């Protein structure tokens, strides 16, 4: 008996996919594994122990009466090139006028806040410092506005200049007192130099610049070459030219109004040109010697003895 041929649906169903038992078991095991990761029997196991960092022992706190505080150094940058000094005590506010917080002596008469139990040596040191400051202030004293307009510093023409008496001191200003411009130039050159240095330079300078009018026409470079041995030749050359230009003008009435003229040059002008040495008090030691000689003080006796 012949069999019936299979239909088309039966043929297609035979080729359809059917999961086997092995595949189902693998999927179930995977699901079980996933469940076990989320939370299962493994959750009961204790976590691994954490490593604890050992803390550095803190420095002992200093007692309130301890004089030297504990000093620590902390790196300010990662590379460690700079360090910042830190103390356990509170930082004191620094005074801009006294950055190192040194004890300031009480120079006034007020004794508030000063202990009476102290030695007398401290007072002597303070008095000595005050005397030094007063001595320095006298040396650095300048002419006031009223002193600059004194009659001793008034303008004097070359033909009206006073002829000072010759002395044993032989100052450079004595030899050139016939021209007030030269006297002032010599005083300007004697600043921060010695008389011997200026004495070597004057012949060449006055040969190149015999008067103020000629000086204004001479180039500054030529003046610099002549006075180069004195130092600061550029500054001095510019000062000489500007002073000579103002000296020729008719705007000034007192020598203190000119460029580059200070107390030393003004006093020399009053002594050697105006002829009023008694109205000034010089501070330069060489000028003081001649001032004493002219005013008839102790220096005149010494010069008279040397001349005899």
UniProtKB/TrEMBL annotation:
* Compositionally skewed regions (Basic residues) per UniProt: 80-100
What GO biological process, any one, is recorded here? base-excision repair
Q: Which Pfam families match?
A: HhH-GPD (PF00730)
**Ranges where the record places region Disordered:** 1-151
One GO molecular function term of this record is: DNA binding
Question: Which superkingdom heads the taxonomic lineage of this protein's source?
Answer: Eukaryota
Q: Please provide, in alphabetical order, the Gene Ontology terms of the cellular component aspect for this entry.
A: nucleus
Residue stretches making up the HhH-GPD domain: 192-287
Q: Where is the composition biased (Acidic residues)?
A: 113-127
**Cellular compartment(s):** Nucleus
Q: Which UniProt keywords apply?
A: Nucleus
Chief localisation class: nucleus
The family database entries (PANTHER family) matched by this protein are listed as: METHYL-CPG-BINDING DOMAIN PROTEIN 4-LIKE PROTEIN, METHYL-CPG-BINDING PROTEIN
Name of this protein: Methyl-CpG-binding domain protein 4-like
């Amino acid at each position: 008996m012949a069999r019936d041929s299979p239909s088309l649906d039966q043929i297609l169903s035979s080729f359809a996919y059917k999961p086997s038992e092995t595949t189902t078991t693998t999927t179930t095991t995977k699901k079980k594994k996933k469940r076990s990761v989320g939370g299962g029997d493994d959750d009961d196991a204790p976590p691994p122990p954490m490593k604890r960092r050992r803390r550095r022992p803190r420095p002992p706190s200093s007692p309130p009466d301890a004089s030297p505080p504990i000093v620590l150094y902390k790196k300010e940058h990662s590379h460690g090139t700079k360090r910042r000094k830190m103390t356990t005590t509170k930082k004191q506010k620094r005074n801009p006028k006294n950055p190192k917080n040194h004890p300031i002596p009480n120079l006034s008469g007020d004794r508030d806040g000063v202990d009476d139990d102290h030695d007398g040596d401290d007072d002597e040191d303070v008095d000595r410092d005050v005397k030094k400051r007063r001595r320095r202030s006298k040396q650095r004293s300048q002419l006031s506005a009223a002193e600059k307009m004194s009659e001793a510093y008034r303008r004097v023409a070359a033909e009206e200049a006073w002829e000072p008496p010759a002395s044993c001191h032989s100052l450079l200003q004595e030899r050139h007192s016939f021209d007030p411009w030269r006297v002032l130039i010599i005083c300007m050159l004697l600043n921060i130099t010695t008389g011997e240095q200026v004495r070597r330079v004057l012949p060449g300078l006055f040969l190149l610049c015999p008067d103020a009018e000629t000086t204004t026409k001479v180039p500054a470079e030529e003046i610099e070459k002549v006075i180069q041995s004195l130092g600061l030749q550029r500054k001095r050359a510019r000062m000489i030219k500007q002073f000579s230009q103002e000296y020729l003008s008719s705007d000034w009435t007192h020598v203190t109004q000119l460029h580059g003229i200070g107390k030393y040059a003004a006093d020399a002008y009053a002594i050697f040109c105006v002829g009023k040495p008694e109205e000034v008090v010089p501070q330069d030691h060489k000028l003081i010697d001649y001032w004493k000689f002219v005013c008839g003080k102790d220096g005149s006796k010494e010069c008279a003895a040397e001349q005899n």
